[in-house]
Amino acid sequence: MPAACLHPRPHDALAMAPPLCRISPFVDIDFALRRQFSKSVFRHPQREIIIAALEGHDVVVQAATGFGKSLCFQLPAVINSGGEPRS
């Protein structure tokens, strides 16, 4: 299993869930942003948040309405599922 995978700790409520893994370390998140969401650039610090989520880190974001928090979690989900976002 790749080193980037996170294994749940035994005391976690979701201990039976499969480990989180980034599919490929070579994902072009800028291309995914343009293709999936028709956006050309990330707002600061969206890129850092997305990279952390893709690397399997626990991420908590507290930001103002309109910051783009949803994108920070939707883009990694789309990349890791390999599919289109659901409508």
TrEMBL record:
Instruction: Name the protein family.
Output: Belongs to the helicase family. RecQ subfamily.
Q: According to the lineage, what is the superkingdom? A: Eukaryota
Q: Which PANTHER family match?
A: ATP-DEPENDENT DNA HELICASE Q5, DNA HELICASE RECQ FAMILY MEMBER
Domain DEAD/DEAH-box helicase intervals: 45-78
User: Which organism does this record belong to?
Assistant: Sporothrix curviconia
Protein name per Swiss-Prot or TrEMBL: DEAD/DEAH-box helicase domain-containing protein
Pfam hit, one: DEAD
